[in-house]
Amino acid sequence: MTLQHSDTLERERVTRSTPATPASATTSRKIEVGTPAFVRTNCALFAAGFATFALLYCVQPLMPLFSESFHVNAAGASLALSLTTGLLAVSLLVAGVLSETWGRKPMMVASLFLSAVLTGLSAVLPHWHAFLVTRAVMGVALSGLPAVAMAYVGEEMDARSLGTAMGLYVGGTGLGGMTGRLLTGVITDHWGWRAAVMTMAVLAVLSAVILARCLPASRHFVRRPPHFGPLARTYAVQLRDSMLPWLFAEGFVVAGSFVTVYNYVGYRLVAPPYSLSQTQIGLIFAVYLCGIVSSAWIGSLSGWLGRHKLLPATLGLMLLGTLLTRADSLPVIILGVAVLTVGFFGSHSVASAWVGARAQVGKAQASSMYLFAYYAGSSVVGSLGGVFWSADGWSGVTWMTSSLLVVAIVIALRLRATV
């Protein structure tokens, strides 16, 4: 996603200081705009970001089919995504530290190859629980890419090239999140969901090959043993801050509410009176483009109006979009999904940037804590929505997400009052 696939927050991750390097490394030039190395690096990072979020979210439009094929309810079907994001959330806390020993590029390449293989395996497994196991393990494997990619950029890119490199990576995650949803729906209608998932695995393998062949080896990185003690102490400092835990909570609610609507809107639209095909539902997810475009605009707007003023407004957009999806009219439902998506990208952009600005020490660790809360919300709230769907249909889903968003707005107003 969109793991994303996400991401003024990632900009803060690259500002951390890098370990001392030997003279040979410090004298070598970093990758600059206009050089062949810059082109190769950004092709590799774009492909990696694309594949990461395509693999992560390709199962989202397939949940009604999982319910039909494996005879599980909506909450059970949501585990196909929730287990992946849940294990991803936990693994992100340590993946960056492990890369200090294993190396940046080797960890990213291995992460993507292994995730692709697991996705291909999940496409042929006949049993639901085996399918879920592969998706859960994939969450662990996939964490090695988003946790390390921005560290690589920060170490290897010239300062004037950082913005362009990160923008292409984030663009790849957004496009991957949309393509994973859209292409899966189209292929499913013609050849079934297993062929769709296998197609995502093949695309991920191709992306991993591009990453392995095009990404230059690290020249400004020195291996060192992992140190988890200082990491734990830094996390403790973040949790004692007067504002950061509230911002982490915002990430939990924002991601959880957004993923819940996307998880279960398909259940509503495949049923009468809409009876949409998987292709048609996939095309609705093209509204993701609205969020991708608006993210940069809202991010720049926050510098003018202030994050404390903009966060309640973007959360309000999410609430409005959620309530619009309660309508019976299909165009209004689609409009609601679009408004929700714009509000989500804006809220995530503002909250994540606020985390980086607020953290006085350990900015990378604060970013990791925010991402942990973000993906934990996607996992926990995303599955909880299935319980509300089973109890009261779409009305239950929207009342749950609306209630959470009201809480998020109250938190945002509290944060605004403390600025």
From TrEMBL:
Q: Which CDD domains match?
A: MFS_NepI_like
Q: Which InterPro entries match?
A: MFS, MFS_dom, MFS_trans_sf
| Membrane-spanning intervals of the chain | 37-57, 77-98, 110-130, 136-154, 166-187, 193-215, 243-265, 277-298, 310-327, 333-357, 369-391, 397-415
Superkingdom, natural source: Bacteria
Bias (Low complexity) ranges: 16-28
Q: A GO molecular-function term, please?
A: transmembrane transporter activity
Q: How does it sit in the membrane?
A: Multi-pass membrane protein
Q: Where is the Major facilitator superfamily (MFS) profile domain?
A: 37-419
**PROSITE patterns linked:** MFS
Compartment(s) of residence: Cell membrane
Query: What's one Pfam family the UniProt record gives for this protein?
Result: MFS_1
Q: Which GO terms describe its cellular component?
A: plasma membrane
PANTHER family in the cross-refs: BLL2771 PROTEIN, INNER MEMBRANE TRANSPORT PROTEIN YNFM
Name the family the entry cites. Answer: Belongs to the major facilitator superfamily.
Name used for this protein in its record: YNFM family putative membrane transporter
State the species of origin: Paraburkholderia rhizosphaerae
Lineage of the organism: Bacteria, Pseudomonadati, Pseudomonadota, Betaproteobacteria, Burkholderiales
